[in-house]
Amino acid sequence: MTPSLTSSYLLRVLAWHSLLLLLLLIGSRVTHALEPGALLLGGVFMGLNFGLLSVGIRWVLSPTASRKKQRLGMALLSVKLLLFLGLVSALFFRMNLDGVSFVVGVSSLLVASIIGTLTSGSSFSST
Questions:
Q1: Is residue 126 in some structural domain?
Q2: Is 25 exposed, middle or buried (0-12, 13-18, 19+ CB in 10 A)?
Q3: pTM for the full model?
Q4: Is the residue at 89 inside a domain?
Q5: Contact between residue 40 and residue 21 where contact means Cβ atoms under 8 Å apart
Q6: C-alpha closest to that of 34 among 107, 126, 124
Q7: 11, 29, 34, 44: which could form a disulfide with 101 (CB 3.0–4.6 Å)?
Q8: Could you read off the pLDDT tens digit of each residue along the chain, which spans 127 residues?
């Protein structure tokens, strides 16, 4: 497993994601530019998605994983995909969410992963 996919990296990204989400929530309360509920929902949505994806990928790609664990990982990834697509559809069609605020919450995970990579202290070279 590459250093960028270790548990410490995943925890670092989730910690940065939580911090960014908290700062965005505080900023949205002060400026009234974003809807806090949709912002938080987008951030929590991506945090859960990222966590489940990392578990499923780790189970499927682990060199020591048994066939049963690989199948369970593939099933988890399939169920996760269907659940999250259904959840997003339900959120936007059944609830009156601010799409921009939701997307800002979702995008905070991307920013957190960039910060987590840049602060990891590992080299970008392939040696």
A1: no
A2: middle
A3: 0.76
A4: yes
A5: yes
A6: 107
A7: 34
A8: 444 457 788 889 999 999 999 999 999 999 999 999 989 999 998 998 888 888 777 777 777 778 887 888 888 888 888 888 888 888 778 888 888 999 999 999 999 999 988 887 665 555 4
Residue 125 lies inside a defined structural domain of this protein? no
CA distance 123 to 98: 40
User: Which tokens belong to 23?
Assistant: 């700062």
Residues 35/98, Cβ–Cβ less than 8 Å: yes
**CA atoms within 13 A of residue 107's CA, in its CB half-sphere:** 7
- Quick check: helix, strand or coil at residue 126? coil
3-state helix, strand, coil in the chain (%, to 5): 80, 0, 20
